[in-house]
Write a structure and sequence with these properties.
The chain is α/β, with parallel strands linked by helices. Helices cover 48% and strands 14% of the residues. The protein contains ten helices and seven strands. Helix 1 links the parallel strand 1 and strand 2. It starts with a strand and ends in a 19-residue tail after the last helix. It binds uridine-5'-diphosphate and magnesium ion. Magnesium ion binds next to loops.
């Protein structure tokens, strides 16, 4: 019987210090039970990353590489790597960072869960060391706000991109053609049987993180924008606030008029202003909703992703 093929996808951006360290570590877990391959995706590195990948590929046939014309970002690198895994007819694909923050020692656990029938297996850091208190605060706030606006309670804090996708999950993932990709949201969208595996925080093996606060902040906003009606909430909340202000000003006007015993004491000015703002924010709300619908349509995300069916696929030649 043929062995199952498992392809490990490794996005790399300026990682000349870490690639060889990674290689020496990961090969310890590539046993003969499976047909393993490692695809390094060179995301437009400006250092010697590509040369290192090439020399590894020369001495080890399991090593493949795929190089971008420029830096497209980790999300694009993951997409390209999974596409390569599909092209290689892999039974499962694992996405792993090259800096050993995604520990290769979890590989057997990921594969075991895959053999148990899970389609998507995630990993999550149990505890956070390093990093400032401020970044820990922002991270926690992001997960809370994200869970609130997207209703995705499944994305646990500390969840990494390190995961295993079986063939079906890879196909579903690739069927989502969003240009601005927020992979964690995509996993939630994809569904199927998912499992989470926890591990202890790992330090980067060498080199420095490719993320900074601005990049992470914009990424957080992207996630909420792509997987929620985030933008609609803003005019909606303001419209409600203005509505309460309108009620308050009307009440105040009536109170003043009653106190003075004269209709002339009723002040229309704040009411006119409130009404104007209310109308404006209601219009904005509907406009944002319309924009949301247009975006959803132009993104061409699949309407659904099938898990099972007893409908037979008819051969078109019949
Ligand atoms: N990475 C990439 N393209 C980028 C930025 C990062 O392919 O534009 C890769 C990087 O080489 C590493 C992984 O994504 O393998 C995670 O990056 P990093 O360690 O800098 O992020 P952190 O662990 O700090 O979140
Ligand atoms: Mg890292």
């Amino acid at each position: 019987m043929n062995k199952k093929r498992i392809t490990i996808v490794v996005p790399c951006y300026n990682e000349q210090e870490t690639i060889e360290i990674y290689y020496n570590e990961v090969i310890k877990y590539l046993n003969d039970d499976y047909d393993f391959n490692v695809v390094f995706v060179n995301d437009g590195s400006k250092d010697n990353s590509l040369e290192i990948m090439k020399s590894l590929a020369e001495k080890d046939k399991r090593i493949k590489y795929l190089s971008f014309s420029r830096n497209f970002g980790k999300e694009a690198a993951m997409y390209a790597g999974l596409e390569a895994a599909k092209r290689m007819n892999s039974d499962a694909a694992v996405i792993m960072d090259v800096d050993l923050q995604d520990p290769p020692y979890l590989l057997p656990d990921l594969i075991k869960a895959h053999e148990e029938g899970y389609n998507l297996i995630f990993t999550r850091q149990k505890n956070r060391h390093g990093g400032s208190k401020l970044s820990a605060f922002f991270s926690l706030s992001f997960y809370k706000v994200y869970a609130f606006v997207t209703k995705d309670k499944g994305m646990a804090q500390g969840a990494r991109d390190y995961c295993l996708l079986d063939k079906r999950a890879v196909d579903a993932f690739l069927s989502i053609k969003d240009h601005e990709r927020f992979t964690k949201g995509i996993y939630h969208f994809v569904g199927f049987k998912q499992k989470i595996i926890e591990f202890d925080y790992q330090k980067r093996s060498a080199g420095t993180s490719k993320w900074n606060f601005k990049k992470l902040f914009l990424y957080a906003i992207l996630g909420m924008r792509e997987f929620s009606r985030f933008y609609e909430y803003i005019p909606k909340v303001i419209a409600w606030l203005v509505f309460f202000l309108l009620c308050f000003d009307t009440g105040k006007g009536i109170y003043n008029a009653v106190q003075a015993g004269s209709y002339a004491a009723f002040d229309w000015n704040p009411i006119r202003l409130d009404a104007l703002f209310l109308a404006l924010f209601i219009v904005l709300f509907y406009l944002f909703r319309l924009l949301y619908d247009v975006r959803k349509q132009t993104q061409r995300r699949p309407i659904y992703i099938e898990e099972e069916s007893n409908i037979e696929v008819l051969d078109e030649s019949e």
